[in-house]
Amino acid sequence: MRSAQAMVRCEVFMSLFAIQILNGLQLGLLMFMVAAGLTLVFGVMDFINLAHGVQYMIGAYLVAVMIALTGHYVTV
User: Are residues 40 and 13 in the same domain?
Assistant: First the structure.
């Protein structure tokens, strides 16, 4: 039989594993929605609008600044 400590460790591992699976699924769906949206926009316009890239760059820059200021990627 397993010890109580080993069972708790297994439960914590399974909990964290399930959370990471859900995080990966959420990120994958978000990327799909962005890609599908851009495909629709570019398909309708028949022109690649580079302003979308600028918006992503600004968002990435703001995230980098927040990480530099707080030292952590989660801000409360």
Answer: yes
Q: Do residue 54 and residue 33 come from a single domain?
A: no
Q: Over the stretch 37-55, which tens digit does the pLDDT of each residue have? A: 888 877 787 777 677 778 8
pTM: 0.52
The Cα–Cα gap between 37 and 25 comes to 18
pLDDT tens digit sequence for 2-17: 687 887 888 888 899 9
Taking CA atoms, 59 is separated from 16, 44, 54, 65, 66, in Å, by 28, 25, 9, 10, 11
Tell me, yes or no, whether 35 and 58 share the same domain.
Answer: no
Longest CA–CA span in the chain (Å) reads 65
Place of tokens 């990435």: 60
Same-domain check for residues 26 and 55: no
Retrieve residue 36's tokens: 């599908």
